[in-house]
Amino acid sequence: MDPFEARDGHASDYRMHEGSAMKVSHHFAGHTGMPVAIQTWVIEPGGFEGFHRHEGQELCRSSTR
Questions:
Q1: Residue 64's pLDDT band (cuts 50, 70, 90)
Q2: What is the model's pTM?
Q3: Contact between 18 and 51 (Cβ < 8 Å)
Q4: Do residues 37 and 26 lie in contact, with contact meaning Cβ atoms separated by under 8 Å?
Q5: What is the maximal distance between C-alpha atoms in the chain?
């Protein structure tokens, strides 16, 4: 494994809960030897995760506004 990885070398566009488009980057591409996934999720300014709820909560709209 190279000591450096290209930015967005393992990235894809993703949309969940009918929200805004996001970019999800998977770092180290599973080469850490640990049972974890290291990711960066980027939501553009003004974007949101979409309408959803977490266990025990009412429907919410996550937003950075």
A1: very low
A2: 0.57
A3: yes
A4: yes
A5: 45
Two tokens, residue 59: 């429907």
From the CB of residue 57, how many other CB atoms can be counted at a distance below 10 Å? 8
In this predicted model, what pLDDT tens digit does every residue of 7-30 receive, in sequence order?
A: 777 788 888 888 888 899 888 876
To which residue do tokens 């190279």 refer? Answer: 2
CA-to-CA separations, 29 to 15, 17, 39, 54, 60, in angstroms, rounded: 21, 25, 10, 29, 32
Q: Is 52 exposed, middle or buried (0-12, 13-18, 19+ CB in 10 A)?
A: middle
Order of all β-strands in the sheet with 22-27: 11-14, 22-27, 38-43
- Structure-block tokens of residue 44: 């553009």
The CA dihedral of 42, 46, 51, 55, to the nearest 10 degrees, is 60
